[in-house]
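Office hours follow-up: a student asked to see two folded examples consecutively, so here they are.
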Amino acid sequence: MNITRVSDFFSINCLYKTRRKLSDIRLVDFPDVFQPKASDHGWYNLWQEKEYFKAKKSSNKYFTMILPPPNITGTLHLGHALTTTIQDVIARWHRMKGDPVVWIPGLDHAGIATQTIVEKYLNKTKGIKRDDISKEEFLSYVWDWNHEKGSRINSQLKELGASLDWSKEHFTMSKKHSVAVTEAFVILNERNMLYREKDMINWSPSLRSGISDIEVEYLRLCEKTDIEVPGYKKKVTFGQIVEVAYKLKYSDEEIIIATTRPETICGDVAIAVNPNHTLYSRYIGQHVKHPLKDIFIPVIADDSVSLDFGTGAMKVTPAHDPVDYRIAKKHNLEVVNVIGEDGFMTEAAKPFQGLPRFLARDKIISELSQRGFLKTIKDHEMMVPRCTRTGDVIEYILREQWFLKCESMAKRAMEAVRNGSLKIDPSFHEDVWFSWLGNIRDWCVSRQLWWGHRIPAYRCNFENNSTWLAARSEEEALLLAKKLYGNTVQVEQDSDVLDTWFSSALLPFSSIGWPSQAVDFHKCYPLSLMVTGHDILFFWIARMTMLGLELTEQLPFKEVLLHGILCDTQGKKMSKSCGNVISPESVINGISLNNLNSLVKDSHNLGILSSSEVKRTISVNGKMFPNGILDCGADALRFTLCSHNIKNSIIFFDVDQCRTNKFFCNKILQACRYTLLMTNDDPIEIPKELSSLDRWILSRLSFMVDSVNEALTQKLFNKATSAIKQFIHYEFCDYFLYKIYAYRKGRK
């Protein structure tokens, strides 16, 4: 199609919207001002109808990406909008260059997060606790939640204009993905990379499950502070250190230890002293009286004990601290568990058995005081580990779990970056990559949940013995067990589920057909590019890289683009706890302050937000949006997100910038209107010679196109938006059109 009129060039948008011929475009087709809702309406349906997002069959390799799957816990926020917009710009740019693009959408079942939110929802709306119903009933509620939230998330993605190939949509709890998860586990087990062992793990008593490191956040306290803990009516005090005396056997001398966890004292099995300690080293090999039990415990030497922390001597409670557990294994000490998986004191903690751990703490301190062993209680700087999903304080407990060996996989992942096979952009994140992978621990992949991929491992019971094997089904497990242990063997599947990160780490290849090799598998895999926030570099990107190399013998992607974390204008990360989360549709469609607060209250009524989160969010809304949020449209939102340097660690989002970019959209509209106003419908002959003004504007157009292409090549979207704004706003509108207007006015 030849465009022979200037007005034709600026009327392309109207052409797509109305499906008219270029020659039919009229000034009346343009509203007086930019109206986002009218402009956005109908576009997405047209794009899908024309199948613009489906890659045409090609003999060449596809440009392939997957959208980091949003969790089905709720709806999208602006952080999701940032990732989606970045990928959408890249996908559309490659289509414009003629590349066949496959951009895959999907949703993540988010085991812990979803189970937690559904439990809150059921308790708040129906008065039902998980223990009140069967596993099957609970899972039916989760599937209902998934259908509702999944549909809403997909609608939000479409409202953002994400040009995803919906025919390739996946879900991490689908039967297809479950096959991939099972196959991966079986293969890894066959390669002797999985083992089951009792070890120290992060434990959430309110969830009754182990959790991954990424689901633990550390609250830094500098002094005595009361914080809310699930299951306690009153706030619990942290930020204190207690000094306790342990009297030596056959002596009036004593060793003073300092602890921030007096509730674990009943589980003490030794006092550890650094052999270089000037005062306490002389007691090594002796015994001290336990302050709460009628027993004596040894004083041992261990150079891991810090001379600078507390008094220089430490109590060893191996069942409730990773460092203490390592010391206990080294010295062959007993392990005494005094806090149960439910967060209550066990029988070994008599006379405090049955008390919640933090109420027991108060009683233990009181008992130590009465016995004369309590020396001081002082304010103390400390880090409190909390579950990001529930707000509960993490316990460290010993539990038998499945672990994946990571050392060899980590070495391959590090080498891929060193030799340039895998590019991490921006490169300063490589330091984190090497630091984490270079000090990697084996990965605990077990979770004690109902929602998730049940671990495909089976306990084989035979002749008073038991062992474990991995299999693709119970039938396969029984056949294997009978061959190994005889016909009387019985098999029972592990009740635990796999860590969600294990499932999502397979997505680069499972989403396009693995383990079955589809026709286009090798054209789509490895992915061309992976885009996500830098905060999950080692929890997701590294694990995708490790498992991709192990299971497919290829890198899952050749390049990783890590964008910054979206924060508000004060630099605070957008989160429920801060009360500053904004949904994309609130910016796109606009919303009043009353309606904004009504959404917050609705979330509270559904059990999604706590009372404190509601109070905080309403307060933040009043300060940030006293007049609500004006409708800006998807284009203005996307342009605003791209106008930041996405490679910075933090990206400051200001809704006022969206309003400014809405005015920029209006500028483009008015330029189109003016161009139509200044021309008629007669074809314009292409002049043999161009005026200096025409040559200048065409040179600026060419420079802008080159600048945008170069910026997109380097993934510097802010430079692309700057080049576009410079050309349209200042060169085309403010100068070129003004000169034409002045010329026509002079002729009159």
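And the second, which I mentioned at the end of office hours:
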Amino acid sequence: MNKRSAAFLFLFLFLALPVFAQVSLPQLVSDGMVLQRDAEVKIWGWASADEDVTVHFLGESHQTRADGEGEWEITLARLEAGGPHEMKIEASNTVTIEDILIGDVWVASGQSNIELPMRRVAPLYQDVIDSADYPEIRYFEVPKRYNFKTEETDLISGHWQRATPESVQEFSAVSLFFAKSIQQRYDVPVGIILSGLGGSPAEAWISENALKDFPDHYEEAQRFKDDELIADIEREDQQRSDAWHDELNQTDTGLSDPNNTWHEPDINTEEWGSMTIPGYWADTETGAINGSVWFQKKLTLDGDWARNSAKLELGVIVDADSVFVNGTFVGNTTYQYPPRWYDVPQGVLTEGENTISVRVINQSGKGGFIPDKPYELTTETDTVDLKGEWKYKVGAEMDPLPGQTFVRWKPVGLFNAMISPLLKTSIKGVIWYQGESNTGRPDEYRELFPALINDWRQQWGIGDFPFLYVQLANFMEPKDHPSESNWAELRDAQLQTLSLPNTGMAVAIDIGEWNDIHPLNKKDVGERLAASAFHLAYGEDVVHSGPIASKLNTFGGENELAVSFEHTGSGMQVKGEVLHEFAIAGSDGKFFPADARIEGERVIVQSGEVPDPKIVRYAWADNPVNANLYNKEGFPATPFQLTIEKN
């Protein structure tokens, strides 16, 4: 037999041998995991086709056999809270899983406000981070991916983490405060599975089958099954962005002389303009241009500053920035939303005159420095306020950069890649914070959001588990007169979703920030969600909601209406001297500010401008900043609109 024939024979014999795949497990079934107590819990994985698999746990052995595709699973029933425990899984190999807790597992999902990590809210909660030693709180973050073709069965990565001062910096802030409340109240382990993506609309989180009730979204999901389409879109977006930034950098006068760029502290700024920061250059003689604008501020410091490192806080800047101190680059941020927190290393600051230089790139809209944010330079003992006059000069003026196509937000993609792999995991319930990206279509959300909840419950197959969600916080500049509002309409869609069984809503109308879509106060959000859980998930007879308007009737006066409320707790109260944010209209739908007073479990509303009132609104605005109706337990009333009922 020649060498070539021998090689072919060896290959034939090798391919004819049976293939033994070692037993493997999904990412969620791993060290440090939390298993749901008092429920049927699946442990699953993969092995060779028809291979015997044995799971040893809590002194018992559970045997099964992989199917023809190599998939296997066993069910553990009615586990009692506790741990840590160890699990061994035996097949052709043995896998040991350590540090397993049994408690309550919650999925946290939505867009950026559910994602927002503790490090982003550190100005309010540094003490919480520093003391975060919670071994019975575990956290698993789902990788951010999309898939328009297939419902995936596993995650590409991820691991369970204990809550420690180091790890919680990246934990979802809302989820941490929620988990703390649950764990401390019931003394059971709590597992949080975060599956969220900033900017994502609800339709991205719904299964393909459920999207059939929304033909436009369903058709778009079919389009994005085309890999070439996605590649073309992403390539065109990248080319357009690269070309815009290349032209910007080539035409920016501040970069034209590499030996004398405008970030240098000794650049001549005598002919530069002056602008008050915070503010927008659209409000100056420069006008509403896009492109790059350079800013510089000089300040005099004593010798103590020169001997220390410092923190530079520049609020929030629209859109991107690069920051220099005395010519030394200290950091940059590439998009609007994050707070600008930059470290200034020891030795950069000097005794005497110092220079802060900022290059701002604005792609569209109004560029500048957002008001009502901190702008300061600090050490442990000193603070310099940086608000006030800065020198500025336009580097390059550009046409607006068209927005990109966010493929990852398209319908069904996030469900397939970020929810489908979780569906075999037994859970206690879901907490959800989303809606900002659907405010352009609030009427659709009245159907879309309930469809999402029903879809998830059907997909999980464990009944109507508690689904707890956050109503949108107040946001954008407040108005001094009643007006229409998509944000108010979407909040109302969220309110109406309470008609689904076992749903709860945390009202956040009092903890937003007009200039930040990511308000820092995540503690109240998490704890209000937990209050709903105390009632819905754990069966406690506790006040878990603020007042919710239930009906509207005429009252004694000719132009008075009475709003009846549920969830008033031990009584309603006004925070302040008088109630605000009530408006009233007649049959013409023209709203006027209204006087309002509490009488028992009702609020009486009237306005001299409306002699025959028919409709009442409360906190119906993007940012009803003066909303001040609460129950005595401290929960705010939800915004509402009601039309009169005949007696």
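Two things to take away from it. Residues 252 and 396 are 5 Å apart (CA to CA). Residues 227-251 form the longest helix (25 residues).
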